[in-house]
């Protein structure tokens, strides 16, 4: 493991792919591609031993956001749990407020699988990051005729 | 812009490319002169054209600059 953990941010897909391959060759261990944002809510649920709870937490939070703001939230399966991506634009100040509130919920035991370290790191860095490896979408949450609907696309 | 963030438990070096077009132009020049880099760039271009899944779903947001790419070390369990 390197002494320091490099993080490379770029708006170019080509640059990202090149950087990943170059660093992997240089350091002789793999690097992951991730997406980062200050304007959308992206959450990580990491609970490989209890995927049912992880999915239910992701779904509950997705439904709460969609009920409050409308729009759409997507839930993605990851190797160790789920990602939640809420597709509504926020200012970083708003995102930060939501992250801080969720962090308090995790610390009070409301959520068991929502990744506390991911929330803490997001507040420390000033943006959110999610890894992109081995993902597939399992559910979409939308507001239809005033009611929140969850469409399960694949068995979560 | 280059910023450094050093923490005792998880030290990080963060590098941000502000103008990707300049970086891409520099890569093109390097690729012409360095055979090894040329090979990496060709592989990267092929990979960039094949990305599917999460990133494909959010191409539009990535293009608008509301999302950006981050390259980070893989987790230890992903390195085997």
Number of domains of chain A: 2
Q: What is the residue-averaged pLDDT of chain A?
A: 92
Number of helices of chain B: 4
Q: What proportion of the residues of chain B is helical, as a percent range? A: 40-55%
Count the E strands of chain A.
8
Oligomer: heterodimer
- Strand order of the main beta sheet of chain B, please? 1-2
Instruction: For the record, give the distance between the C-alpha atoms at the N and C termini of chain A, rounded to a whole number.
Output: 33 Å
Largest sheet of chain B: 2 strands, antiparallel
Radius of gyration of chain B: 16 Å
Mean pLDDT of chain B: 75
Q: How are the SSEs ordered, and which strands pair?
A:
The complex is a heterodimer of chains A (156) and B (80).
Chain A: E1 5-10, H1 13-27, E2 31-37, E3 41-46, H2 51-69, E4 72-78, E5 81-86, H3 92-107, H4 116-125, E6 128-131, E7 136-144, E8 147-152
Antiparallel strand pairs in A: 2-6, 3-5, 4-5, 4-7, 7-8
Chain B: E1 2-5, E2 12-16, H1 20-33, H2 35-50, H3 54-57, H4 59-64, E3 67-73
Antiparallel strand pairs in B: 1-2
Helix pairs in contact in B: 1-2
Description:
The complex is a heterodimer of chains A (156) and B (80). Chain A is an alpha+beta fold. Chain A folds into two domains: 1-31; 35-152. Chain A is built from four helices and eight strands. In chain A, the strands form two sheets. Chain A has a five-stranded antiparallel beta sheet. In chain A, strands 2-6 form a two-stranded antiparallel ribbon. In chain A, strand 7 (136-144) and strand 8 form a beta hairpin. Chain A starts with a strand and ends with a strand. With 80 residues, chain B is of the alpha+beta class. Chain B has one domain. Chain B has helices at residues 20-33, 35-50, 54-57, 59-64, and strands at 2-5, 12-16, 67-73. In chain B, helix 1 (20-33) packs across helix 2 (35-50).
